[in-house]
Amino acid sequence: MENTRREHWEKVYTTKQPHEVSWTQQVPVTSLEFIHSFHLPKNAAIIDIGGGDSRLVDYLLAEGFTNITVLDISAAAIARAQKRLGEKAALVKWIVSDILDFTPPERYDVWHDRATFHFLTAPEQIASYLAKARQSVNLFLTIGTFSDKGPDKCSGLPIKKYSEDELDHELSEGFSKIRCLTEDHVTPFNTKQNFLFCSFRTLAA
Q1: N or C: which end of the chain has fewer CB within 10 A?
Q2: Looking at residue 131, what DSSP letter applies?
Q3: Is residue 123 part of a domain?
Q4: pLDDT band at residue 112 using 50, 70 and 90 as cut-offs
Q5: How many domains, in total, are found in the chain?
């Protein structure tokens, strides 16, 4: 299964450009707003789960953050981001891994995930993800998934949709909800996908 997921995403990132995939954002406004709300020092450890070639890392670097990790299952996605950043890519820790195989090498002040969690549809996958988050997050977690009003699939794959109560329940062991919002993401094809974004604080913080 892991190889199947990897092959799927490698194919996506080797055959499609950003304007040809639904999740592309020129400016990750909501993600940045959540991260800003945590009032972090610039040396805070931030990991972007499933970051791919997202531009979140560009904006965090531009704001002076110095301890950024980007994880993605696709080596092609990370190579694309590195090429875009040029010399600045050396300022980022890059990890090619399926989140289910990931062993966090350090603890993070912020765990950011926009649209990885909802691809985990089996209970054991969800449990594995949440266990890794509980083990490695010092302070905050912010997560974006398709809402209960969102689409049933993404990139041809089934996903799991969440209401605010459902996402809060999944994170209730180890985390306390700070706030949630829903928003329509307008894709490059001018269609809309309804997302749920929530932020959490670790109970140990």
Answers
A1: N
A2: H
A3: yes
A4: very high
A5: 1
